[in-house]
Glutamyl-tRNA(Gln) amidotransferase subunit A
Amino acid sequence: MSDLTKMSAAQLAKAIADKEASAVEVATAHLDRIDAVDERVHAFLHVDREGALAAAAKVDAGEVSGPLAGVPIAVKDVIATKGVPTTAASKILEGWRPPYDATLVERLRVAGTVMLGKTNMDEFAMGSSTEYSAYGPTNNPWDLGRIPGGSGGGSAAALAAYEAPLAIGTDTGGSIRQPGAVTGTVGAKPTYGGTSRYGLIAFSSSLDTPGPCARNVEDAALLHSVIAGHDPRDSTSIDQPVPDVIGAARLGAGGDLSGVKLGVVKEFAGDGSEPGVLSAFHESLEALVKLGAEIVEVSCPHFQYALPAYYLIAPSEASSNLARFDGVRYGLRTGDDGSRSLEEVMSLTREAGFGPEVKRRIILGTYALSSGYYDAYYGQAQKVRTLITRDFEAAWQKADVLVSPTTPFVAFPFGSRTSDPYQMYLADLFTIPTNLYGGPAISVPCGLSEGLPVGFQVMAPTMADDRMYRVAAALESAVGTLTPPTLEASA
Ligand code: GLN
């Protein structure tokens, strides 16, 4: 492995700006690494070698500058990239090349990043393991027999396998943070509306939030600041200045948390997590206390209803959003031989194009929204959502941020949770409350349990994204980053 693939995004940006390395060299090193290991990892659904080298050449020619000029990046395949295949890991979008870029992709280009390709995920971002990708799962670089998390497992695995220093994910219920936790990388879900949804293939529009994935907190903050900010093309985009996440990460890296109150969510700090996860979490709390933080216990009684509320709200919105995949407008069309009605072709296309988890969500959502059940299910879930938001607001009276493990368990072996959907849904037990509330949250590595990474979650009030970066960077300064196995050994 070349040293260029081991460098952080900040180091690469500096080396390229100082002309110690060319952007083409950096891109080539990462493309070669992908060639060497991605057959085993399968982080990518599509590698855009030509596009990456052309973008890098532009940086070297001085045609593109920006804070991340020449830094390679991998983008989750649920995000529209002009002319580059975008499938959301679904058969129904096989071969689709969007005619436009998502806002965040435009911003990545302006910042000078070099897109290497599109990463694997659970189909339409529904899942926690990438096992629901229509193109086969991604393998966790820490143990190729285990899941890399999901839905954005490809983005997280690309970082852990040194195939890219930066990646983009989307977090509807935990799909940035949970893959970050189980791959020993950093994943941040910005405040809802803090990053634009324009050009995301919609899953649950009131929850979907794109955000940064990186191998350290400062890199995540650098990427966050590049993609965040108001976008008039997204009706729920927040028209306020982006919090100073880079400054906060650097402040936190100084290792002083005096006066910062960390609220430990009582309901998430006890039973329900693996013992190794809990001990890494509690050791991290002790490390943060040594840096001057104060621990307060906070009760959030409605968090226990977050999972069931989410699994009504998200599928309801998904059932409506996925109606657009009708065999007419995009991608796959099945059975259109002139003998069938439009409805029959639509139905055959959706039958052939969607995988079982996506179908389950559409059926669940359609049922929850149907007249007669709307009040009992969807309406009730929305009320619970309000109660969860109130729990957060009450918590901010006592604490600056809330903390918990990111996930109750470390990376699990393939096939161990697919037979029971509820077991899969449990992976997001601790991440979902934040999505229902809309605030920001970050997962940062905090140690190992049985040789596998454990994530520490920091949740903050809406538009206080800087606060979570400060605490995450302080924790990183105390416990260090994790170094995944290099994969060479098994070559
Ligand atoms: N695992 C959750 C789900 O399956 C969250 C997905 C996400 O954040 N995109 O819905």
In short: DSSP finds 17 helices and eleven strands in the chain.
